[in-house]
Every structure is written in C-alpha cells, then in structure tokens.
Amino acid sequence: xxRRVVITxxxxxxxxxxxxxxxxxxxxxxxxxxxxxxxxxxxxxxxRVAAECDFDPVSAGLSDAEARRLDRAAQFAVVAARxxxxxxxxxxxxxxxxxxxxxxGTAVGCTQKLExxxxxxxxxxxxWVVDPAKASPSLYDYFVPSSIAAELAWLxxxxxxxxxxxxxxxxxxxxxGYACELIREGTVDAMxxxxxxxxxxxxxxxxxxxxxxxxxxxxxxxxASRPFSRTRNGFVLGEGGAIVVLEDAExxxxxxxxxxxxIGGYASRNNAYHMTGLRxxxxxxxxxxxxxxxxxxxxxxxxxxxxxxxxxxxxxxRHETAAFKRALGxxxxxxxxxxxxxxxxxxxxxxxxLEVAATALAVEYGAVPPTANLHDPDPELDLDYVPLTAxxxxxxxxxxxxxxxxxxxxxxxxxxxxRRAR
Length: 422
Description:
By secondary structure, this protein is α/β, with parallel strands linked by helices. It has one domain (5-110, 145-415): Peroxisomal Thiolase, Chain A, domain 1 (3-Layer(aba) Sandwich), CATH 3.40.47.10. The chain has 13 helices and 16 strands. The chain has helices at residues 20-29, 64-69, 72-88, 111-121, 139-143, 146-156, 171-184, 202-210, 249-254, 283-296, 314-328, 341-344, 351-365; strands at 5-14, 17-18, 34-36, 49-51, 100-105, 162-165, 190-197, 237-238, 240-248, 261-270, 305-307, 337-338, 367-368, 391-392, 397-404, 408-415. The strands form 3 sheets. Strands 1, 2, 5, 6, 7, 9, 10, 11, 12, 15 and 16 form an 11-stranded mixed β-sheet that branches. Strands 3-4-8 form a 3-stranded mixed β-sheet.
C-alpha cells in the first residue's frame, strides 16, 4: 500500500512577514509588500520595483558568523527550517537520522554573494583576470547551490538523501513533490523540504529587463503586481522562502503531530515548446492538474480552492485561465482562485513553496487569500479570481500550481487529512 504523506511543520520568510502566523495574517489582509527596490541603485533599469523581505539575519536568530558566511538565500533557508522543525516537533535521533532527508528548490542559488564576490575579485568588473586573494573562503559554497541543502541537513541532523532541485520557477513546488515521492516509496520517513531564492540583484533585474518580463509600474510600486488585471504588464520580482516538514502519515499520527494537510497528488509536465512561450490552450498545465487529481483520486468538482501561479504577465494569465477550464470543466467557474504573487511578488524558485504553505494554511483555517490589485479584471479572464478581499471558505481539497520558463508545469493537490484513506 502506498504511504500517505502529510505536512506537520511550516516555516516562512516572505516579503511582508517573517514567520508562518504573520505570513498568513499578511495574506488575508490583502496588503502588498511590493515597493521601489532599496537594496541597490536600480535607477538604470526598466523595472525598479520588487517585493523585498524586511529581514535582519541576526534578529531572525542567526549568529554574526552565520550572517557573514551565508548567502541571503541560505539565511532564509536556515531561518525557515528552524521554524518548521520546531513547529513539527519532529525529533531526529541517532536511530532515525538516516530516515530523514532534505530537498531544497532554488532557481538562482546564491546569486547575491556570487555577484558581490565577483565585484570584489574583479575590482568592480575592471579586470578580466580576477584576484583569488580577494575572495571569501566561502566562495565555493556560493558557487554550488547544494551548499544550501547541506546547511539544512546539518541543522536538522538529517542523514538521509540531501539534494537541490532546480527547475526555474517551479522549483519550490517540485522540491516538495520530489520529497513526497521519497516518503511514499519508503526511502525515508520524513523530509525537510521547500524552496528559497534571493534574486533581487542587478544581474537578475537586468536579465528580466532584457525580455521585458517584469512590470515597469515604477510610479505605483505598491500596486505593480496585477495578476488577471486588464492593466497587468509583467511580474514583480520577490524573494524569500518556505520550508515544510513532510512525514509518513502513520508515523505523524502515532506521535500526535499537528497535521496541516495531506499531499494527495503531485505531477509535473513540460510543454517541450519554447523557453519563455506558453501554448494558449494551457494543455500541458491542464495535464499536470489532471495527473495530480488522478493520483489523489479526486474529482475536479471536489476542488474548493485553487492557488494560481498568477504572475501578471499577459500570456501566463491567459494560459492559466485556459488550463483551469480545460482541467476542471464547468467547475472552474465555481472554484475560488487567487494569486498571492499580487502581494509578495514572484520569488522564482521560492514562490512555489510559499504557495504550498499558503494552500496548506487555507485548508487548515478555512479561508482563501485574495488577489490584490484586481480592480479592473481582464474580461477575457472570466473566472473567480477572488479580488481584493479574503474569503471564508471550507477548504477540504485545494490545488496549487506552478509554471516556469523552459516549459515546466506542476500541480499539487492538498486535502484535509482524515484517518481513513480513500
């Protein structure tokens, strides 16, 4: 019999809030954390807005040495993992350490430290031949994203498989999906997993400027992220991360753990079509949704909430709307759908895990966050995108989806945990 997998711990670092409870309260408020970029001079760039975390590593519990050594993304991972492990109450001893693993999703790894190190060893880019004497002793850790997974394995005392999963903007959901499969197949009993990214740096902003993927609503940064709106013109870059503790359900029940939700199904597809383009019919995302529903033995009419990818690019929002109609049929017009990127921006490889956390909290608390800034809905996007205000809804079954450059499409079904399996 396939093992069931449940979420027993959550840890969050996000724009607008650090910590799971403040994160959930922030989402339900409908406020936005998007603002003018403050971490560097963004004057030369087309898009000068982002959703930054108000995050001080020492105040968040890291030592001075950790704050100096770790890249910002790794700092997010450690802080979120500490919260998730404490929340779960999972005890990892010598006899169980080999049955606990780590999987972290990230799109761009240790971008900020890599960039600052390059500036230091090249004298601001003036020298083609760099001076290694000016490099940090931790430069190698910044170069290999697997260092983030190693940090979490050391933190947790997890001696099972430890890995990084990098699939662009679906990394956060895919890492949790992969971790879930490891538990189901019996390789491990628990996983510390999720996604982190800290991409708000000149190199990242320049890359997205070049393809005009980000919003240039620079005069109104607090409303720049406008998923499903007639006036949307690109996503707003974000940062942060979420780490979750997954466990075999029987083990979690036996030790009396709090269970936020069960992961009923997960699937990933690729459109094998274009690096940044999306098919208008949404077939590949619909296929991922259908596969996740099939794995969970869940009928489309049972879905109570759908956490959308919702980037606010012209093609993504059309693509998703088509995919939801294709996958859910007539029920697509009945289910509340929202995009939390309207409030916390798009943190690339981190945002999928933040969306999993938000979806689990929707199941736990019976409410769905709104799509902020949706004052002028695009008439072509004619589904219930929960504009402006959170809504009380009994959420027994919820979907969260992701879509990424390279054609990656992922979907995960979360449901309220019941002792009796389907």
